[in-house]
Amino acid sequence: MTEYEAVIGIETHVELQTRSKMFCGCPVTFGAEPNTACCPVCLGLPGALPVPNEAAIDGILAIGSALDCELVEHSVFHRKNYFYPDLPKNYQISQYDLPLCVNGRIVIDVDGEPVTIGITRVHMEEDTGKSIHVGDGGRIADAGYSLLDFNRSGVPLVEIVTEPDVRSAEQARAYGAELQQIVRALGVSDARLEEGSMRFDANVSVRPRGSAVLGTRSEVKNVNSLRSLERAIAFEIDRQIGVLEAGGRVVQETRHWNEETGATSSMRSKEESEDYRYFQEPDLLPLHVDDAKRAAVRQALPVLPAARRAGYAETGIGGRLAAALVATDGLGELFEEAMASGAGARAAANWVTGEVVAHARRMGVGPADTPLTGQHLAELAAMVEDGELSATAAKDVLAGVLEGEGTPAEVAAGRDLIQISDASVFEDAVDAVLADNADAVGKITAGDTKPIGFLVGEVMKATGGKADPRLVSELIRSKAGG
Questions:
Q1: Given a cut of 80, is residue 89 above it in pLDDT?
Q2: Most buried by CB count within 10 Å: which residue of 57, 105, 198, 477?
Q3: Measured between alpha carbons, how far is 324 from 331 in angstroms, rounded to an integer?
Q4: Poorest-confidence range of 275-279, 336-340, 427-431, 457-461?
Q5: What pLDDT does residue 132 have?
Q6: Residue 247 in contact with residue 183, Cβ under 8 Å?
């Protein structure tokens, strides 16, 4: 039986968070009333002329620089001609053979192994409007009628195109996650997949393993989550292998991913570049990016996710926790502030990626939107280290801080969670537990230390969890002769 391998290239569209659109002064908004953020330029009305958005150009140059691309000196806009209701001009202003950024790369980690994905190009274009198909399933084939909203028309849209270097659905998901983190770190887009400000098209083909000849590809359009990207590619790989093994031929086409059925379906035959009849946009001058501009863009780059993960891992917390701190906005900053305030790295990382993330998800907010600060975490760590709080009580105190009850000291006092570290205070409780559990005491006296944990638990129950378990254990050993 023939063994196949997948060959995958990914096109990612990222909407930039500029105040105004790419070629006009209309605001970039999400969720506004339909057709309230558009103008003659957005609608392609006669005589309306585009003017490039400088902030958007800065944004795409930042993305290209972060992806280790060459920032080209000379670039032009083109008209990409196609006809669809949500494209009022019947062409899209895009870039073709002279994009702003070329020949980059991104390194991802898959099961502990680095994989380099080449970046062919990063180019600028404008987004289309939005078609709303009213009917079962929200697809045009099932719609009774369709509505058009042009608020999104003209929003700055960056397209990032990879080389066909991806070899599995798992690699594709890792690539998408890394790219999303990079874009967010740059601050040029919120990259929210659920809102469409970042979305993927996957070009998938299969070929016999070891062959240098590319198979016929299909393009899965507008995938809007990392989970869906992985599932859609995995399905498409299996589908194409099944077609070939049955003696059929894979057809070059565009396919739709259905999240509910977990399958792709044919939409239309796949266009080639000549079908779009590209030609240079006559209403826009070429772009010139000089050496000073390129140097300024690279100098302004923040610390990128890969470097942040490496730096966090060097604190001794390991790669898994380091990755978790970078994966969610605000966690790394909270971790850094906690360490700067004196908290130990592992304790801070565990709290931030555990209880803090869980609370934020329950409340539907980001970590930065809670009352917790890094100073709070450092204070909490000190209270545990000084024996004022048990590990269990510390979690309760952290929950109180997250719920806005005050500082760790205030919450611990208010919830009566301060640990008793004076053995004389709970000695009577220890004596009572030992008297009630003579068999366990006998085993300890005979050299079997296993019952000690049970007895410590009984004392903790008797003291409402406030006795220092380390001191309790020492007292039990002393009294039982263990």
A1: yes
A2: 198
A3: 8
A4: 427-431
A5: 85
A6: no
Lookup result for tokens 């994989």: 115
Q: Cα–Cα distance between 174 and 238 in angstroms, integer?
A: 20
Q: Are residues 183 and 210 in the same domain?
A: yes
**In the numeric block, which tokens belong to residue 172?**
């594709």
Token pair 């917790």: residue: 372
Q: What pLDDT is recorded for position 201? A: 96
Please count the residues of the chain.
482
Burial profile 220-235: b = 16 or more Cβ within 10 angstroms, e = fewer: bbebbbbebbbbbbbb
Same domain (yes/no): 275, 318: no
CA distance 460 to 477: 15
Per DSSP, what are the bridge partners of residue 199? Answer: 13
Domain ends where: 376, 393, 414?
Answer: 414
Judge if 258 and 164 occupy the same domain: yes
What is 85-118 written as a DSSP string?
A: TT-TTSEEEE--SS-SEEEEEEEEEETTEEEEEE
Q: Residue 318 CA to chain centroid, in angstroms?
A: 20
Q: Tell me which residue has tokens 């502990």.
A: 112
Domain boundary residue, one of 298, 327, 351? 298
Angle at 301 between CA 300 and CA 302, to 5 degrees: 115
> Could you give the CA distance from residue 119 to residue 64 in angstroms, rounded to a whole number?
9
Tokens of 429: 């409780």
Instruction: Kindly state the average pLDDT of the residues 353-374.
Output: 91
Our count of domains for the chain comes to 3
For residue range 204-246, what is the model confidence (pLDDT) as tens digits?
999 999 899 999 999 999 899 999 999 999 999 999 999 999 9
Residue with tokens 């991913």: 257
Q: What is the CATH number of the domain that holds 455?
A: 1.10.10.410
Work out the mean pLDDT of the chain and round it to a whole number: 90
Please indicate, yes or no, whether residues 321 and 392 belong to a single structural domain of this protein: yes
37 and 133: one domain? yes
pTM across the whole model: 0.85
> Exposed/middle/buried for 297, CB within 10 Å: 0-12, 13-18, 19+?
buried
Q: Are residues 293 and 436 in the same domain?
A: no
What does the block give as tokens for 101? 């950024």
Positive or negative, the CA dihedral 215, 216, 222, 224 is negative
* Full domain range(s) for residue 428: 423-480
Max intra-chain CA distance, the chain: 98
